[in-house]
Amino acid sequence: MEQLLEFETVSKKFGSKAALQGISLSVNPGRIVGLLGSNGSGKSTLMRIAAGLIRPDSGKVRVLGDEPGVQSKARVSFMPDKPQFESWMTVGEALNFQKDFFPDFDPDKSKRMLDFMKLSRKDKTSSLSKGMQERLQLTLALSRRASLYLLDEPIGGVDPVARDHILDALVEFYEEDSSVIVSTHLIADIERIFDEVLMIKDGSLVLREDVERIRLTSGKSVDQLFKEVYAEC
Ligand SMILES: Nc1ncnc2c1ncn2[C@@H]1O[C@H](COP(=O)(O)OP(=O)(O)OP(=O)(O)O)[C@@H](O)[C@H]1O
């Protein structure tokens, strides 16, 4: 089975600050993976390396079998934790921009997602609330027929009721033989959609486990286990 993402002892520093330290992991197709860690633990750095936006200082990264680059960017859909559309754009223009940029953009899927997210093409992006901006970000990312989706903190700004709705969208709209990595510290709210979790602390991977296995062997929720693992480290 082709692994969608592989990290082999990947490290990255910013100045003297080690953001990632010897991370090794792999992600198989058809999985929704939670990337869990507190503020500053290295989640965004890991995502940005996988998306090919920054390079590691050492270690090997393989995305769909190749080093991150033009080819992998065409098959990886990255949702950064800050809006990637310009403030002068309408929602429709932001979608057109995405369509022009990525050949795997699916207009029909984007239309269905817009309805689901209660967004209109005429809305000005500058007038959207933080939660609505996140809905648009997610619409842009999931409207592509990508092999790997990297979603960095997709629901931090939306209220708890809308969160459930957005998670349903995520499960409905991602491609089934693709995989999704979702970074978050809102574990209790999101854990129901995860197949497996990766927990990082201070740039190191401290746990990688199937969610089903966590529940069966420990009888704990991912949120409970996360609090325990972090208390021990
Ligand atoms: N461009 C940068 N320049 C300097 N330091 C950086 C840069 N990007 C990240 N860092 C540092 O690297 C560490 C990891 O940051 P990162 O953004 O990956 O964490 P995170 O888990 O995504 O945090 P959060 O949940 O707060 O978004 C932090 O100490 C951060 O200050």
TrEMBL record:
Keyword annotations: ATP-binding, Nucleotide-binding
ABC transporter domain ranges (all copies): 5-227
GO MF terms, alphabetically ordered: ATP binding
KW Chaperone (keyword) present: no
UniProt-listed Pfam families: ABC_tran
PROSITE patterns assigned: ABC_TRANSPORTER_2
Coiled coil: none
Matches recorded under SMART domains: AAA
PANTHER family attached to this UniProt entry: ABC TRANSPORTER, ATP-BINDING PROTEIN, SKFA PEPTIDE EXPORT ATP-BINDING PROTEIN SKFE
Protein name: ABC transporter ATP-binding protein
Organism: Saccharibacillus kuerlensis
Lineage: Bacteria, Bacillati, Bacillota, Bacilli, Bacillales
